[in-house]
Design a protein that fits this description.
heterodimer; A: mainly alpha; B: mainly alpha; 82% helix; 0% strand
């Protein structure tokens, strides 16, 4: 049965790839002749408005030479993040990020479903050096993770990498002491953070008219506590990712 | 800079191919981690620091740990590499 359908599926895949290639080529050429990605007018691109943080704001943020003018220390920008990647990932394109989080959630749920609880054999105990060093390294990893999450709007990083660093601290603990943390606590934390994210999105929908729109004051560009919406969203993403990755590893280790 | 990126890219390619020809699964997993580390370095050279942090923590640590635990589970359930 499967054998007979295979050429059809291959043909369908080929057509899909050709369609995608034509689509990419047309997007690159901008309707003109040849590949003109670099010579195309950057001001017509959506990312230009993102860089200027003026997608919906009425006031111009360019100077008289037509250059982008995003200056740290000023107030009143549409989006308070200095880190442009964060501005796009956690604000303008938050719906995509929410989809990514759902993918991670599905992976975590699948692992919990497939990894049936079982008795683990008594593993060989870790050496004294590992046992002494791991708490110190764990402390550094936790502090680094919290730093990466809480400074996501200023420096590279954010919820995903920070959560992964925190989860790596928990993995070190599993490796050194051969006992895992309470898995149920991870699951509860994860679901609470997920509900919090959805609530943030719905409040944005209610107040601003689009899902995950920023409704909190953006503050001074470049200040440690600014862009309140992004800080809250990244804190929730960090908690969720850390709890998910820790619970995946706890499921793998077993009881 | 471009030369460094080309050299690192070739190293990644060589590492990724050599994963296929490793004798044991453990060696293959460690080689895979090395490929991840080189790609994190390449992201740093290309100034994609956000991606580099994620790649270094997830690709080089979490994935490798998960692969090792999966291998351990396989061995507990009777999988033998030498067969």
């Amino acid at each position: 049965m499967m054998k007979r359908n295979e050429p059809l599926i291959n043909l369908f895949g080929l057509i899909l790839i050709i369609f995608l290639a034509v689509f990419v080529y047309l997007a690159l050429t901008d309707g003109r002749q040849g590949l003109t990605m670099l010579s195309a007018d950057l001001k017509q691109r959506v990312s230009y408005s993102y860089l200027l943080k003026s997608v919906t704001a009425a006031g111009p943020t360019e100077n008289q030479h037509g250059q982008a003018e995003v200056i740290p220390g000023r107030e009143g920008y549409e989006n308070g993040a200095v880190n442009i990647v964060t501005a796009i990932v956690a604000d303008y394109r938050m719906l995509d990020t929410f989809g990514e989080i759902l993918v991670l959630f599905a992976a975590s749920a699948g692992v919990s479903l497939l990894m049936v609880e079982r008795k683990r054999e008594k593993a060989k105990e870790a050496s004294e050096i590992v046992k002494t060093a791991v708490p110190i390294i764990m402390l550094f990893a936790l502090v680094t993770g919290f730093y990466i999450i809480s400074h996501g709007h200023l420096t590279p990083g954010g919820g995903f990498p920070g959560g992964a660093v925190i989860a790596s601290a928990f993995i070190l603990q599993f490796l050194a002491f051969q006992k895992r943390s309470r898995n149920k606590a991870f699951k509860i934390l994860e679901s609470l953070a997920g509900i919090g994210l959805l609530v943030m999105g719905l409040i944005g929908l209610y107040l601003e008219g689009s899902l995950f729109a920023n409704f909190l004051p953006t503050g001074t560009l470049g200040a440690t506590i600014s862009a309140a919406g992004i800080m809250i969203i990244y804190a929730l993403i960090g908690i969720k990712v850390a709890a998910e990755l820790s619970s995946i590893s706890a499921d793998f280790i077993g009881e | 800079m471009e030369a460094a990126i080309i050299v690192l890219g070739l190293m990644m390619l060589a590492g990724a191919i050599s994963v296929l020809f490793q004798k044991s699964l453990k060696n293959a997993i460690i080689t895979f981690g090395i490929v991840s580390l080189i790609s994190a370095l390449m992201f740093t050279l290309m100034k994609a620091y956000d991606v580099a942090i994620t790649e270094a923590s997830i690709g080089a640590l979490l994935t490798i740990a998960l692969f090792f635990w999966a291998l351990k589970r396989l061995e507990e359930n009777g999988y033998d590499e030498k067969k």
